[in-house]
Amino acid sequence: MQQIEQDIYISNTYPGVTLGALALPFGILLIDAPLHPDDGRSWYATVCNLGGGAGRLLVSLDAHTDRTLGIRVMDCPMMSHEETALAFENRPSIFKAQPLESGAEWEYCEGLSGLRWAKPTLTFTEEAILKWGEYSIHLEHRPGPAPGAIWLNVPEASVVFIGDAVVVNQPPFLADADIPAWIATLDVLLSAAYRNYLVISGRGGVIDTPIIREQRKYLKEVLKRLERLHKRNAPPEATESLIEGLLARLDFPTDRREQYEQRLRYGLHRYYTRHYYPDEEGEE
Question: pTM for the complete prediction?
Fold first, then answer.
């Protein structure tokens, strides 16, 4: 665990996403959850030991399985964007592990099948402000990585948690993305409004401006290559040809190569089908 500002903490200890917590006299606010139940209980106990009042709330930054499957173990109300809540409505009540497909972290963790989803109890559309003791917590809809993607902004501390808007040394998740909206979201993050902020990636922890700019550049390259395929009337299967070149632009451990290849394979095919061949989407 790392303290990044007064009463604000992050952790990259557990598989999956970067976790956040605010431990304040009013109560504890959790940001996302560990994948595995044992990790969830450990994280919850660690955060509770920091102190803080009796209030409990968990904010989910989007609907991705890596950050939402372990929420039930946290045993507290959950808040998300309404699009994230809709994603939960389309899921069975009990999670069943599937064959490796999307290149997500949960696919490489054992013992997850049979867990029950915890659905959001509070939702919002564009923005919600929580008065959490001396801090005001701004939840802001920032689509691009996913329809229900949000940021958690703590203006008094100049800290913002941005979820999967920027991922570090790994391919972004493209299956449910809107790349032009995503690039516009990063433009906001690069604006003067966030110039002096501490920015927390949901898969990498504290990041700086060059990393944000590199993510924007990478997404523009992905979009350019997809547009080229579309202009040639290439079928969705042709996205396979983009994987090697896009992986070559990233710096990651060699033991992650197979996972990241599959993440791009799945994400590129899904994105291309949704945006350029929508009539074929239901046939996958």
Answer: 0.93
